[in-house]
Each structure stands twice: as structure tokens, then as C-alpha cells.
Amino acid sequence: MIDLRSDTVTKPTPAMRKAMAEAEVGDDVWGDDPTVHRLQELAAAVVGKEAAIFVPSGTMGNLSAVLAHCHERGSEVIVGDESHIFQYEADGVSVLGGVGMHTVPTADNGELPLAALNKAVRADDQHCPRTSLVCIENTHNRCGGCVLSLEYMQSLKTWADDLGLPIHLDGARVFNAAVALGVDVKAITGLVTSVQFCLSKGLGAPVGSIVAGPKPFIHRVHRLRKMLGGGMRQVGVLAAPGLLSLTDMTKRLQQDHDNAWVLAKGLAACPHIDIRTDLVHTNIVCFDLRKSAPLSAKDFILVLQQRDVYVIPFRGGIRAVTHYDVTSKQCQKALEVILAVLNEPSQHIKLPGKCAMGNGTPLVGPEAPTVNGY
Ligand SMILES: Cc1ncc(COP(=O)(O)O)c(C=O)c1O
User: Is the pLDDT of residue 374 over 50?
Assistant: First the structure.
């Protein structure tokens, strides 16, 4: 099986499993877990922030970060309409935090144009919610893993500083962004107030994210993490692989980008495929099938599954993500399978009755989960 559904499917490396087995642990709710402390200290240093905290997921990281910034009632956060926070986090900031989301249109390259942001900022008026935060995403998942330029991020920071607004970065894949830009990750995180990044995606850890930012902010996130049920006990067993994510796995992301680029270039050469190769910057490859293709995107995904290549439906098209658990050879193989299917006359393609993910859940069709963002 060549699993290109997401980089979340990576399994812990042998070194991670060993580190988990040998981790020194304590009760982290009491602040006793030395491995968690090491992870948090290293994470803060790596992204150049005063403090960091380990949380169970990217979703909890973003939620607790937004609530920590928007701690006055009546707050509103500005988010992109294609952002993960708006699209895929169950409206947690509104449901659980009473924070309104003000969406602005996301440009194809993941940017939130300053003109749109200007319009979204509320007047200091009794009728209005209080604009308290801007959130951005880098790399941008629904924009095909593209990277926000440092120039754009600098202009956003200048704009936000003028208004006294903090910026939270959903940096689930911020190390992919740093590798693509050829910079230390601090060049990116230095332009925002706080960041959430995932250890459990391209960095290969089985669980967990980090929220980093100023000390008083992390103090508030700590309380919110407890409130949300994210205070964990002997969690050094999960922090231990996270340490390896930061020390080792960040160094190999270029390989995933190279694999994605080979895939994207190969797909672009197929007349039945529509792909914006200018937006393939990292490990995500999004594409559509043209009308000339011998089958629909939905059937295409099913046929690929039958041939052991797993991709997902995404924004009306298809998404493939490269990661630690797919080799260059497997990516090449996946490309060959994709091109072979699209080059077959439609009457030769046998549609499978039913195809399922590893756990038996149908990938497309009426019973398929709608979580197609991953
Ligand atoms: C951009 C982005 N932010 C946040 C998340 C949420 O992370 P988690 O699945 O750990 O909650 C994801 C997950 O895919 C993501 O792609």
C-alpha cells in the first residue's frame, strides 16, 4: 500500500519507539515529567519563543492559542476562509470559547490580502465585537501546501503591529515552510506572536503539537489545556518521540518535497490532469481531472485504491501527500499507476464495488467520512 492520504499516517520510527520505551516520565499535570520539560524547552528555543507547551493535537493547540489571545468576552478573530481553523476545527473557538470568526477570502497562494484584512478590522464602537487576533497558516493545507513568503509575512507583521494586533500562526507544517524557503524556522516564527506546530505530521511523532509564544500567553494556554482535558500524566512517552521530531526529522523534509515535485511534474505532463505546479512548494500535491479523463475523480480514487495507491478527495479534486513512510521509489510507482489508469480506455477500467481505508471506512461515497482535509 502506498499511502499518500496525509503525512499524519506516518508511523513512529524505530528510534522513536526505543525512545518511548526508555523515556523518563512523571506526572506532567504536577509538572513532574522531565521529558516533557526537555521537549518544551527545546521547542521554545527552536522557534525562538519565550515558552512552549506540549498539547495533544494541532486542533487543541490552535483552539487554546486563539482563546488565550481572545480572553476578553466579545472578541473576534480574523481568519482565512480556507484556513484549517475555519474549515476543520468544528468551530471550537466559537462553540467553546465564545469567540467570533471573521473570515476574509484566502488568495490562491494562501495569503490573506492586507486590503481584505483592513476591511475586517472592527471600529472601536459599542456595536462591534473587538478585533483581537489574526490567524494565518503556513504551509497552507487547502492551498496545496504552498508557502507564505517572508515578504508577505513581514508586511502582515508591520500592519498588525500598527494596529496592536497579535498574529497566531497555524504552523502545523511550519518546518516544511522553512525548508522550502531555505531559512531557519525562526525567520518565520519571528514574524508572529505565537505558533502552533505539529509533531505528528511530517515530523513523524505519533501524537502531539507544540504551542509557543510569550510567557504570559503560554501561562494562559496551560490553564486552557487543562480546561479542555489536555492535561496528561506520564506523557514523557509521547514527548520522547517529539524530541526526535525536532532533532532529526526536520532535517529530512527536503526528501518529501523532492518526491512531491517529481509526482507533480509527472502529473502535469498528463493531458487529463489539471495541476497548479506553481503552488507545489512542499509535500502536498493537489490536482483535478479534466473532462477528457476516462473516469470521474471519485471513481479514479476507488480504482487507485484497488491498485494499492491511496489518495483523498480534496476541494473537488484529489490530494496526495508525501512523507517519511513513502519512498522515492513508491512515489514513482504511484505516478506510474495514476498515469496507467488515466491512459486506459474507460471500458477497460473495472470499478471496484466497494473500497475502504485501512480501518474499513469507505474513502468515497455516501458512507465516506467528510473529513477530507487530511
Ligand atoms: C494546517 C493544519 N492545522 C491544524 C491541523 C490539526 O492538527 P490535528 O489533526 O493534530 O488536530 C491540521 C491537520 O491536518 C492541519 O493541516
Answer: no
